[in-house]
Amino acid sequence: MPWKESSPVTERERFIDAYMRREETVAELSRRFGISRKTGYKWIGRYMAGTELTDRSRRPRRSPNAVAQDMEDFIVAARKVHTRWGPQKLREALVRTNPGVVFPSAGTFALIFTRNGLVRPRRRRRLRTPPSTQPFGHITGPNSLWCVDFKGDFDVGRRRCYPLTITDAYSRYLICCVGLSSTRSGPVRKVFERVFREFGMPEAIRSDNGSPFASNAPRGLSRLSAWWAQLGIRHERITPGKPQQNGRHERMHLTLKQETAMPPQRTMRSQQRAFDHFRKEYNVDRPHAALGQRVPADYYQPSACAAPEPIWGKDFQYDPDFATSRLDRLGRLRWAEWRVKISDALANTLVGLKWCSARRWDVYFGPNFIGAMEHPSSPSKRTVFIPVASAVGRSS
Prior knowledge:
Elements: H1 8-20, H2 26-33, H3 37-48, H4 69-81, H5 87-97, H6 106-115, E1 146-150, E2 154-156, E3 159-168, E4 174-180, H7 185-199, E5 204-207, H8 223-230, E6 234-237, H9 247-260, H10 268-285, E7 323-326, E8 332-335, E9 338-341, E10 350-357, E11 360-365, E12 368-374, E13 384-387
Parallel strand pairs: 1-5, 5-6
Antiparallel strand pairs: 1-3, 2-3, 3-4, 7-10, 8-9, 10-11, 11-12, 12-13
């Protein structure tokens, strides 16, 4: 039976006082205080040796599995460089870059972080619905789908920076991260021209419904996505208000913001250097849990589909029963007696015209039906173009 829980030290002192009076034997005292004779002799021996009657630590005097101080210092220094990397991610990165060195477990890394004050408490968040993985079901390998988006915008010095990012959905490889001064179609297209020449072309590109990736034109086409179509690239748009359909790309954006824009750099040139450094680290150095703690560079390879020359692609080929006409630079159709505005997004492109009746022709951009031209019944009215629904909502 153990000492009384109320005050074990006081009970031990009372036991020693009774023993020193020599009125009872050790066995009798032990029975009265509810302890074994062995415990009684233990506390008598400690008292005679001049030690305190408090409990001693059960911690072993030596630990054969303890981490050496130089190893702990090395881990702490690496953590201070990569302040947002968790124990497992940092351990895998160190193993990759230091072959032959035996590192402790990820759990020991976590203990080292804690005792060196390198862990920041997380803010509690309310539970949310997990992201849907359905849109990625058709991904079969590198370059089967690229994801593109702008990571918001923020001030860099006196200018506004709009980071344009492109990732490969299969390998999570960050193909491009460029700070632009706007979201206009022209600069974005130049970035894609350079990327296509360096990495080849994907089978599909997924984006949100914002400019310059989509517009209110028929089928949601924009000048950029119309160009992709002419190159043979399928454009996928996520459902408005559903950024989780591009969840892998959005998750990368969170890390990008933490590592490069908190706080931003002072100039656009230094900000781009920060983007370039992050891209190299993200692709080559940073292990990803979703890749089995491998890095994206282990899985990515450039596309076998090279960019065409000229880079603007080829006109669509239409069936023999179609008439064709090239829109002008303002997206207007001028063919026979027909004069009608189609869309700015399709400026300078070749469209197909399918006869329906004397007053109606269906208009196609490649395989896509985009609307119909109709002659009014009254000669005083103008020809009208009736587009199909654009299916573009609020930008996600």
